[in-house]
Amino acid sequence: MRPALLNRVYRIIGSRPFIFFSIIMLFKSYLAWLVIFEDTPFWAPLISEIPFIWAIFCLIEWFSSKRKLTAYLIVNLALTGIFFSVIMYYKYYGVIVTWRALEQVNQVTAVKNSVFSLIDPYFLFIFSDIVVFIYLLINGRRKHGAGYRLLRICNRPNERRGVMTLIFALSVVICVMNILPHTASMNERVQASEMGILNYEAYSLIADEEYELIEKSEISQDAIDELKGVHRPVRAPYQGWAKGKNLIVIQMESLQNFLIGLEVEGQEVTPNLNALVRQGFYFPDFYHMVGQGNTSDAEYVVNTSFYIPPQGAATMRYVDRRLPSLPRLLKVRGYETMTFHTNTVEFWNRTELYAALGWDRYYDDRFFGKEDAVFFGASDDVLYRKTAEELERAHREGKPFYAQVVSMTAHHPFTLPKDKISLDLPDKYSGTFVGDYLQAQHYADEALGRFIADLKARGVWQDSLIVLYGDHVGLPVYSLNNREQELLAELIGHEYGYADMINVPLIMLSDGALYPKRFEGRLGGQVDILPTIAGLMDIPLIGYIHFGQNLLVEQDNLLPQRYYLPSGTLITGKSLFIPGEGYADGTLYPLSGEPGDESVVTEDAFERALRLLQLSHSYVRQLPERSPDEAPQAMLPEPDDEAETEKTAKTEPDDAPPVEDADDAAEHETEGEEAES
Fold this sequence. Notes:
9-stranded mixed sheet
């Protein structure tokens, strides 16, 4: 850049930094609003964001006479970082990030592939001015005068303190007027759009205090059942059908229900899961109930039958408590309890979670090693092979066990190594999240098929109750571009929406105990898994507070949702309800995706759902504190494990596990119908 032009730029910036940086921040505000709130009028961020920015700039003008430019640049960088974080977080979770996400900062490097995959090149324009400033300052220093002249001009004492005082006062008043009328809004996205992003961040910081807790004496199973409309029959169908069996719970990474039965160009995407659906109990109307903790939240909800916290991940908010849990229920009945996951146990604070849940032992990356590593750890094939060996050992010892197996390879952003890609997709899927997702889930299904064959060969499958479900959404609505939305609409036959996003499968199987049955219209969520397992295994829940229900007994359900969808969201009947500022301006979405197929959601149901969330949080926060001495055993591989693995490697399975004998299935089905009647 020529010296004369460079000097002119310096003079413009230096003589009017307040105006110059205001224009820059208005542009950045508008970019953030465009991504999050889409059809944004230009004046919206002008009214909502600029007053907050001006209030800070006035403070700079008052108190920074010697390093004014430095102060402007620091504030510019900080606010840019906030806007960029809000954009990136929204593109995955669909929520406006708050300071609570700082708890996840140490995990950013672990999920860097997911973060980079969400970046649209035009998002980076938000940093363009910072690059220019770096150039100007470096170049100015070399010219011995221009850069220092900029600092000198910019650092002149402000002679218009009265004007700055007036601007500051007006800005603060406007910020307060933007915030106060919307503090009661249920929908965080609506709240942020009404307050402004920066005002919302400030408000969340100030208002983020401990929720008012309901007295423990008011929290009872009868009160919960009344809110949910639960009726307990004298003789429950399927009670004790899997009593005394081992329990294997398989949590499938990012598995969504639309994949079940899906074919692309004549190829089944999940042939092994399709076969399992034909063999056991299948619940197609089942929904995830996770929050900020994603996979770890699913582990928490499934093993406790409690809801996630109002803020943050369960692994951060609740692990200081001694949590009632499925591992504890089974342990007192003589079961060994163990959990398997190829990532490090420190990820999502699982060290504390596993202690709070009362697991006997855990297997993490120190046990599985780095063999065939994909993303955060060893592949699903390694997970399943080594897990099968451990389960066979436990089975030989003759003591019943509960094993939780958490798969991971089909993790966002779903970009697998070439040797794990085997689905022949049309070119239109190339380079899309949808195409990568189908490939990742196809591999996960193949690995699952090999695991099933291995368990059968080792004699473990036949003596176990198998429960399999998806942990959380794989394809968030907010992350998809128009092309990807069109591809999904082609695959599922209607526009991909919120209900499709959080719909995950639940499958239950047990040789000689359960028969093929599809529970169509039986609404359920992850909070219902524990009481359903308890029914099948004949484990009484008397005295055990739980917020789920036995899906084999109850026909109706009330499922509060939060985090991926705004607070106050609920599922009941045939509808997903998302509030606006409250119930009155909320929106109904049909679970089927077909317009006109939704059922009415009453204000009473809305209030009951909110009450359930409040009861759950209050109950968990008032549980006894966990003893620091209570911790599961970390399992390490045996020295000769490598050689043993080679000797015990099993042959590959058929394309799908065989369906049980038709006569046996018919006999079991008749028994089940009699029990239900």
